[in-house]
Amino acid sequence: MPCKVNKETHEIFDVTCAAMPGDDDCFSYAEVEINGKDYPVNFIDDILSENNVDDALDEFYRIQQTDEYWQPAGNKTLDDAIHECRWAILKDALMQRGHDAVADFIGTDVSSDSYKRLLDEAEAQMPSEEFEKF
Questions:
Q1: Whole-angstrom Cα distance, residue 134 to residue 128?
Q2: Residue 20, CB half-sphere, CA atoms under 13 Å: how many?
């Protein structure tokens, strides 16, 4: 498939279909040839939509560790997808632990109907180093 590849990050972009598009004009499997060798392409959006958060995170880590090639979901990179999954897992764990855990994480007492909104606001402002601690 004709495309552009960032050989450092292994991101594949500007993907075009080499064949005539049909009724189903999306890819279910694709490979990219680099220096004469074929590599499978991992589609971030497919992984997110076809897996629960834990399994998607495991798949993203596998892609990262094996240096496989991947195509972003919109503007979402592999690192963005990993962060999104990790945040969803942390947020769920805090919510399951209840009011005190959420209040401790946010740093202020909150009502249960504000949990999700305030957690998302906290995540948006949190430096990466602090997120890594959790």
A1: 10
A2: 1
Beta pairing class for 31-34 and 37-43: antiparallel
What is the pTM assigned to this prediction? 0.77
Structure tokens at 128: 């990466």
Helix (H) or strand (E) holding 32: strand 31-34
For residue 91, CA distances in Å to 40, 55, 70, 84 come to 32, 16, 26, 10
Q: What is the mean pLDDT of residues 23-41?
A: 73
How confident is the model at residue 109, as a pLDDT? 79
Question: What secondary structure letter does DSSP report for 73?
Answer: B
The residue with tokens 């997110």 is 48
Average pLDDT over residues 80-108: 89
